[in-house]
Amino acid sequence: MDYQVHFSLTIRSFDGKTAAFLSKQMNLPFVPFIGLRLAQANGASEPVVSVAWDEVSQSFQCHIDAHEAEMPAACRLGLDYLVQAAKDNGWQGAGKIYELAAG
User: In terms of domain of life, where is this protein from (predicted)?
Assistant: First the structure.
C-alpha cells in the first residue's frame, strides 16, 4: 500500500528575516514520520518536523524547515541558491523570497 504525501518546505535565511516556500507530492510505501529525511540528488533533506492527516484529500501533510548555514558572509550560499537547489531536487513553487514580519 502506498500513502499520498504532500511535503511543504520552508527555507529561512540565517537571520530569519526572509524565507521561501516550496512543495512536493510523493507516494510513500510507509506512513511518514517526524524525523524522516528525503534522499535527494544533492544529499538528504532536513528532517520532517510535523506530520498531519488531511481527511479531505486523504493524504498526509508533512513539513520540513531548512535554514541557511552559518558561514562567513563571503561563503554564504544565499536563499536564491538554496531555492534553486531545492527546485533541482523536484520541489515546486514560485520560489519567491518573502520578507517575514518581525515577531
Answer: Bacteria
